[in-house]
Amino acid sequence: MASTLSREDLDRKVEATFDAVDKLDEQVVVIEQTLPEQAREIQSVMSSMLSQVPPLGTVLASRLLEVDRKTVAHWADQGLLVEVDEGTSHRRRFDPLRLHQVRHVVRQLRSAGQSRNLLDAIWFRLEDQAVLDREDLARSLQQLRDGDVVEAY
Questions:
Q1: Which among 29, 17, 24, 40 has a CA at the least distance from the CA of 99?
Q2: Residue 116 included in any domain
Q3: CA-CA distance, 20 to 49, in Å (whole number)?
Q4: Are residues 26 and 48 in the same domain?
Q5: Confidence check: pLDDT of 15 > 80
Q6: Taking CA 27 as the corner, what is the angle to CA 44 and CA 137, rounded to the nearest 5 degrees?
Q7: Residues 24 and 77 occupy one common structural domain
Q8: % of residues, the chain, pLDDT over 90
Q9: Which range, of 8-17, 52-61, 73-82, 115-124, averages the lowest pLDDT?
Q10: Residue 103's domain spans which residues?
Q11: In this predicted model, what pLDDT tens digit does every residue of 63-104 receive, in sequence order?
Q12: Do 37 and 73 share a structural domain?
C-alpha cells in the first residue's frame, strides 16, 4: 500500500532537511581551510539533499525564513527568491536551493543584530558571495597566502 504524506508531514520533513543542511554547513566552515576536499564533498551532499526538496509554498517559505508572507511575496517580486513555475497551480512556489541560500544569509544578518532592511543586505551578501566563489579569485587569494606575489611594474 502506497503511503502519502500530509502537507504537515511534508513541511516537517522539509524543515528537517533544511536544519540538517544547516548543521552540515556549520561543519564545512570549520573544515574548509584544513580539509578542502572533504568540505567540497559535504557541500555536494548538501546540494543533493536540497535538490530532493520540492518547490516550496509561501507559507512554508515564510516559516523557514522567519518572516511574514507579505515579505516572502515582496522578496519574490524583487527577484530575491526564485519562483518555480509548475504550470499546474496558480500558487507561488519557490526554489528550495535559493530559499536555503537566503535563509542562511538572513540568519547571519540576524545573529549580527540586523533585523531591518534585510532585502538590500541579503542582496549585498549574495553578490559578495558570488564574487568570493569565483575560482580565479580563489586562486589569486591562495597565491597571496602562499607568498607567490608578482611585482607590479
A1: 17
A2: yes
A3: 9
A4: yes
A5: yes
A6: 65
A7: no
A8: 57
A9: 115-124
A10: 55-146
A11: 999 999 999 999 999 989 999 987 777 889 999 999 999 999
A12: no
